[in-house]
Design goal:
By secondary structure, the protein is an alpha/beta fold. It contains six helices and five strands; from the N terminus they run E-H-E-H-E-H-H-E-H-E-H.
Length: about 190
């Protein structure tokens, strides 16, 4: 099984990416192949809202093309993002908005993405500096609906509050272990 991990932070080696690395290590321990996608190293243009995707493909040619190919060869996807104003990063939101093409393929054209094994498994790792009660609500809903378009079951989540400084999650071994287990369980369950 191939497990894809998308690092949605504009900051390299930040808290969400460190947790993603731990999750991918957990998946690898169970025999999965893993690929980490650094979103900021790709060109993913925002959705134009042009409705061309009703035909089953996007009019834009950018790195979403290669991501779609990766999705079709994988069995699971982990999205990791810091929380910015109670939502995922702008970079990740651009990718999610471009998933409208997959929504059209699945629901209008009856051609969902075929993950290895049928419906794939998806997980969210989110890290927020504050401790607000609804800190993750917007991100969870956004990712859940993106996963539906991508033909993924929202299987796991790791939501970490109160971690702000770059790399500070390393001082929370319980959260690092939880991320490792998330990756392991995504493969074995």
């Amino acid at each position: 099984m191939l497990v894809l991990g998308i690092a949605g932070s504009p900051r390299r080696q930040g808290n969400s990416e460190l947790l993603l690395d731990a999750a991918l290590a957990g998946a690898a321990e169970q025999g999965a192949r893993t690929t980490k996608i650094i979103l900021t190293s790709l060109q993913v243009n925002p959705c134009r809202g042009c409705d061309y995707c009703r035909r089953g493909r996007c009019i834009q040619r950018d790195d979403m093309d290669s991501l779609a190919t990766l999705f079709a060869g994988a069995g699971a996807l982990i999205i990791a993002s810091p929380i910015f104003f109670y939502g995922v990063t702008a970079q990740l939101k651009a990718l999610i908005d471009r998933c409208q093409v997959f929504w059209n393929r699945r629901y209008r054209l009856g051609e969902p993405i075929e993950w290895v094994g049928g419906t794939g498994r998806g997980a969210l790792i989110a890290v927020g500096a504050t401790r607000g009660e609804k800190l993750f609500l917007g991100s969870i809903l956004t990712v859940k609906y993106a996963f539906k378009a991508l033909n993924l079951d929202y299987s796991r989540e790791l939501l970490v509050r109160g971690v702000d400084e770059p790399g500070a999650v390393r001082q929370h071994p319980d959260q690092m272990e939880a991320a490792f287990r998330l990756g392991r369980d995504l493969v074995t369950t």
